[in-house]
Amino acid sequence: MTRVADIVHFLEMFAPPALAEEWDNVGLIVGDAEREVSAVMTCLTLSGDVADEAAEKGAQLVVSHHPLLFQPVQKITAESEEGRVLLRLIEAGISVYSPHTAYDSAAAGINQQLAETLGLTGIDVLIPKSPTPDGDKLSGLRLGSGRFGELAKPLPLGRFVELVKQKLSVSHVQYVGDLSSPVNRIGIACGSAAEFMHAAREKGCDALLTGEARFHACIEARSLGMALILAGHYATERPGVERLATILADEFPALRVWASQREADPIHWA
Prior knowledge:
- By secondary structure, the chain is of the alpha/beta class.
- It contains nine helices and 13 strands.
- The protein has helices spanning 4-14, 48-56, 81-91, 100-105, 110-117, 157-168, 197-202, 215-224, 233-251, and strands at residues 2-3, 27-30, 36-37, 39-43, 61-64, 95-98, 121-128, 144-156, 174-176, 182-192, 207-212, 227-230, 256-259.
- Helix 2 runs parallel beside helix 3 (81-91).
- The longest helix has 19 residues, at 233-251.
- Mean pLDDT is 92; it is low at 132-139.
């Protein structure tokens, strides 16, 4: 019998909560740790349609990258989208675990996956952190947030942009910089992480790949002479959700595990 607690224990070893950013809300957010589990669904964000999928397909646990309940709440009602999602999950007896920035920063986490997908070499962390109590048993990498590494050979920014589009299966990206300028050392910070540009610059990076950035962050990148590639929040993190479903299925072969099939990027390009 596999319990919620068994999966939580594995996830906490795989992506130690101590790696999470201080502002984050990671861990078991909804549910009973002693409840038995036979089916697990992963997703990027628990929207209403994704919660419906989990209930209809018989999941007892959802591993949602983005956590519910970022802010303290005083009531849970159907008057809000978050309240409706929580009530749907609770009524169906579904537990929710969120690894979020702990998974972003884990040794085999999303930023590491992105760096490897782009073929970077000499990969290391952008912002080192102190070791967790148990250490990181999955890799020789130092612990910390973000990643950086080097391309096999320098490329014009325009060629690198095309590589990002190909590897992340997106038709458009936003960018800051001169497409003819060469880039070699690349910083990686999934999601919404333009603030990592300063750490990337300190590491000698020519460009930072992230999901999205505010307008003023783009102006700052331009003033720093730092190329910025914005591939989309969904595009930089959803592959990690799919990879996590495979990792959980390998670790718990008796379970039925899948990545949400209804989830889709809410942003479209005309």
